[in-house]
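Hi R.,

Quick one: here's the Tubby C-terminal domain-containing protein sequence you asked about.
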Amino acid sequence: MSRVHPTLRRTDDEEPATTADRPSIWTVWNKSSMGFHGTDGFSIYDSKGRLAFRVDNYSRKHKCFAGQLLLMDANGKALMALRPQILSMHDRWSGFKGEGGLDPKCSRTHVFSMKRRSILQGCDKAEVYMDSPNDPSPLPRFKTEGCFRRRDCKILDSNGEEVAQISHKKVNRSVTLGDDVFSLIIQPYTDAELIMAFLVIMDRIC
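And here's the predicted structure, written out as tokens:
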């Protein structure tokens, strides 16, 4: 566990690297925080090693059978429901905000759609369309570049500016952790919750 958490040289009195005016640094573990047999998911830690986001009971089944996923905070509060579109050659997913967790009867607000940029199954690149009345543009608001499978990936905004970067997690100069643990850097003034949702969907698309 100590190797999974970020190893930043900070004192307890210093501000963590999650303030609005500097990049925030996260460690993503492709493992459920529940930690018992039969569970899968994501555990996402902040720069001080505190659990910040999680996805539990993450199914590796085909999306036709797996159903939607739930992004939660460290206490298990539902933040966003991630739902696959079954009949989609581009592996389209939608993100919804609202109370009620995975209950299909609860009211939710559609926030974004994310899909693979090509129908080719080997394609790692994806694009995101936001559902906003203030942004009627048909162009994607975000897109990915690089290879998520290899943990060498960036998320760019519509201007081509980098908003997040995914890379291998290094313990020190000579030791790099496996693909199930990786680093995530989010640029200032970027919604971390949205980036976490994108990351979970990217893992399913890839």
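The chain has one domain: 24-199.

Cheers,
M.
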